[in-house]
């Protein structure tokens, strides 16, 4: 089968959230791009927010090892890695429980997500994803707590319908030099006129990560994981569709590399990290204006984290376990009030139950000493909210308005401090307007408030977290953000770009304040709502079609963060960073060369300087060149990636492990 170049290039550019490069009018081209992370399907050019969209073809083309590595070149997003099994996304300077992750319209964040970098995104297999969207500077009205600077929304694959019975089978093998990866993935999809089934699974083994400049393996950093997913989708009638899904990921023996190397641990690992979920979603369409479409979702999610730690020369093994069970229900109602006015409104309820335990095991006598867990055992965290988003379309303008009221109740039965009940409420808004300039450009202005209710990690954590020892703090109140943003978008059949500048004010921030006390060799920190800060910066992304066979694209992001209370830089703020890619298609070959870079970061807070993962003088700038090529036939494809051609030894700012050195990564796919 002959592959048409224009089709391949078009699919690739669409996958980058960029317009198909073909001889069409701007209005035709724009119909190919929608943004649903704002809780409604919209033309990206007309959305008054900075947005990015990556579809299935980009996800396949990037061939990323993990979900965090998949997202690292999105504008406004920076990747930090504490270890090879980690990967925390910084969204305009914030990370951890101050940014919101969504999975298929369901909150992925739970009530134990930590402040600062965490590893939870790595428990979503990129092999199961078909789409990723980001919305910068907004998201609290759309999805609730934690979206202080934006939302990353992941969409997993769904079975499709077909006019005739259709069976598809896909197999994939991935490998890397120096045994850094050896993995297998498989997928089966069966579809008919009104129903479809999808089942997929993977098993992966990652070896120790080899750093650049011939400095060898970073050991121990390797681990193993496996994942599976099953979905059934049914079109019961013209007006009713439903689906049910199950998904899980299990990681075993994931070392926390920097603690073993820098903190005298013989063992420090995630013995078992497991994420599991099951959900049901139903959609009804009606002819009524106030309820064009009603969507209901029921979900159960479970997160298990087992940790083991033992110091060198010690006979005591510390074993910890945290289990979070989350149940949720949501109802969305889409309304079309007039030709130019539509809305999306709904209610959401989330309920977390947390089981937490800790014990010390004497390796000599086998005596087990039970201790209080990281969180109060049997804690509960309840969230309920109501929201309404309105979309107004008038000639040359698009207006977005919305409100959300959110309530939280945390119940912490602490064995030492007794029963504590903490309740908080928040009301947030979003408002944006786009002004269309001709048919292929727009300028927008938006203002959005956000909030983050203190979760169980803020309120009840007791013990060693990263490089500090934390105590419970039941007096905490919500954090707030206020984002002001100005942006410009342009696109036609040959060129596309998006540029935005923003300022985000942060108030009532929950801060870890160092005390004079020391426990188990770690300084004790108390949590307080005492700081005000701001983030300011901008992002640019663009694409230029050189000719029918090649294209050039790039992105650049910068943010500065200042702690006004302490008169110092905010913690872990990423440096100026970006990437540039050149794509060329010749026959059955598709090739890409990219340069990914970050400038140095010398604006460090006192907390940065005391973090043993960072150089107190700052993080050096770096740049790496990667080359990728693939050869495709009708039923198979071979891809090769040459990473870090210059064998540069580098570290992403704030990370606890260095990036991969010069290496070869391969992937072979068969479809039937």
From TrEMBL:
It is a multi-pass membrane protein. Residues 285-645 form the TonB-dependent receptor-like beta-barrel domain. One of its GO terms (molecular function) is siderophore uptake transmembrane transporter activity. Residues 45-151 form the TonB-dependent receptor plug domain. One of its GO terms (cellular component) is cell outer membrane. Keywords: Cell outer membrane, Membrane, Receptor, Signal, TonB box, Transmembrane, Transmembrane beta strand, Transport. It comes from the Bacteria. It is found in: Cell outer membrane. One of its GO terms (biological process) is siderophore transmembrane transport. Belongs to the TonB-dependent receptor family. This is TonB-dependent receptor. It comes from Aquirufa nivalisilvae.
């Amino acid at each position: 089968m002959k592959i048409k170049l224009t089709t391949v290039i078009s699919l690739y550019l669409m996958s980058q959230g960029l317009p198909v490069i073909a001889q069409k009018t701007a209005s035709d081209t724009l119909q190919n791009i929608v943004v649903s992370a704002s809780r409604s399907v919209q033309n990206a050019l007309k959305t008054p927010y900075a947005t990015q969209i990556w579809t299935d073809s980009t996800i396949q083309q990037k061939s990323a090892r993990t979900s965090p590595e998949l997202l690292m070149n999105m504008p406004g997003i920076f990747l930090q890695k504490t270890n090879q099994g980690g990967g925390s996304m910084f969204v305009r300077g914030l990370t951890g429980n101050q940014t919101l992750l969504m999975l298929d319209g369901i909150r992925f964040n739970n009530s134990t997500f930590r402040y600062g970098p965490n590893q939870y995104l790595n428990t979503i297999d990129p092999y199961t994803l078909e789409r990723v969207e980001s919305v910068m500077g907004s998201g609290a009205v759309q999805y609730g707590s934690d979206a202080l600077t934006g939302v990353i929304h992941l969409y997993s694959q769904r079975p499709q319908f077909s006019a005739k019975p259709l069976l598809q089978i896909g197999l994939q093998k991935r490998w890397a030099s120096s045994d850094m990866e050896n993995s297998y993935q498989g997928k089966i999809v069966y579809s008919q006129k009104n129903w479809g089934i999808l089942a997929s699974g993977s098993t992966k083994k990652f070896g120790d990560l080899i750093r650049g400049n011939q400095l060898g393996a970073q050991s121990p950093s390797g681990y193993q994981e496996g994942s599976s997913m099953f979905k059934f989708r049914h079109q019961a009638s013209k007006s009713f569709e439903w689906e049910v899904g199950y998904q899980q990921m299990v990681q075993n023996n994931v070392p926390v590399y920097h603690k073993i190397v820098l903190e005298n641990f013989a063992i420090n690992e995630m013995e078992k990290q497991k994420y599991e979920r099951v959900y049901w979603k139903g959609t009804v369409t009606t002819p009524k204006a106030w309820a064009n479409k009603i969507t209901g979702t029921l979900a159960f999610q479970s997160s298990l984290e087992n940790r083991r730690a033992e110091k060198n020369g010690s006979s005591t093994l510390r074993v910890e376990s945290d289990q979070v069970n989350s149940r949720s229900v949501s109802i969305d109602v889409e309304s079309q009030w007039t030709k130019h006015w539509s809305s999306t409104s709904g209610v959401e309820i989330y309920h977390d139950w947390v089981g937490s335990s800790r014990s010390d095991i004497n390796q000599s006598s086998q005596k087990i000493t039970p201790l209080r867990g990281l969180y109060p055992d049997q804690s509960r965290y309840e969230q309920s909210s109501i929201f309404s988003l309105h979309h107004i379309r008038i000639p040359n303008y698009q207006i977005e308005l919305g409100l959300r009221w959110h309530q939280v109740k945390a119940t912490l039965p602490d064995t030492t401090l007794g029963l504590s009940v903490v309740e908080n409420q928040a009301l947030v808004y979003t408002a944006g307007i786009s002004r269309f300039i001709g048919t292929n450009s727009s300028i927008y202005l938006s203002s959005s408030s956000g909030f983050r209710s203190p979760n169980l990690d803020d309120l009840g954590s007791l013990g060693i977290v990263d490089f500090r020892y934390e105590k419970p703090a039941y007096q905490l109140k919500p954090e707030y953000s206020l984002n002001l943003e100005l942006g410009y978008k342009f696109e036609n059949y040959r060129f596309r770009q998006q540029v935005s500048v923003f300022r985000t004010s942060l108030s009532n921030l929950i801060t870890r304040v160092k005390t004079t006390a020391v426990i188990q060799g770690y300084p004790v920190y108390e949590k307080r709502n005492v700081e005000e800060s701001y983030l300011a910066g901008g992002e640019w992304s663009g694409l230029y079609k050189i000719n029918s066979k090649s294209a050039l694209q790039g992105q650049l992001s910068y943010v500065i963060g200042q702690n006004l209370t302490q008169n110092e830089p905010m913690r872990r703020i990423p440096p100026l960073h970006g990437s540039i890619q050149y794509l060329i298609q010749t026959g059955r070959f598709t090739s890409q060369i990219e340069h990914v870079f970050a400038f140095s970061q010398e604006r460090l807070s006192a907390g940065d300087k005391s973090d043993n993962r960072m150089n107190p003088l700052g993080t050096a700038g770096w740049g790496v060149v990667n080359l990728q090529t693939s050869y495709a036939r009708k039923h198979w494809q071979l891809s090769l990636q040459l990473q870090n051609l210059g064998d540069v030894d580098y570290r992403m700012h704030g990370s606890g492990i260095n990036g991969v050195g010069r290496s070869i990564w391969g992937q072979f796919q068969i479809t039937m």
